[in-house]
Amino acid sequence: MSEHPIHEMMVTAMENLKDMIDVNTIIGEPIETPDKSTIILPVSKVGFGFAAGGSEFQGGQSSQSDDQSQSGGSSYPFGGGAGGGVSINPIGFLIVRTNEVKMVHLDEGTHIVEKLIELAPQAVEKVQQYFQQQNKGNKKQGQQQDQQSKESNQSTSTPE
């Protein structure tokens, strides 16, 4: 039994799409700095689509025999098409150093969560400093109140 013509179209289109897209399309080839201390990897967002369709048309004389139509072959002429597309958008660079890995985005709006994660330790440190200052202020205020209360006790407890 021969394959339906749309099958061949779909296989051809998918093979061509597969040839265009591989892992190096998303994470590009590494670029190493001359001093060998840093590796830069380009990062892209990849999208692709695929469509195929066809129809058998009734009418006209068929050149195929009735035996073929009963064995699964079509006795009608076929018309169809297939297509696909790929979209590749660079989004940033992954910078790998000895002690650090950093993502540098090309679009400033795409990395809000990453920025929050980067700023979290600094925010925690600021909050800790604030509470430490508050505790020191409370201790000083408490010491001043104790000293004032001792002074007032001494001035009121003088014998007559």
From TrEMBL:
Write down the Pfam families for this protein, in alphabetical order.
Spore_YtfJ
Name recorded for this polypeptide:
Sporulation protein YtfJ
Q: Which InterPro entries match?
A: Spore_YtfJ
Q: Where is the composition biased (Low complexity)?
A: 54-77, 130-154
Organism of origin: Aquisalibacillus elongatus
Q: Where is this region: Disordered?
A: 54-81, 130-160
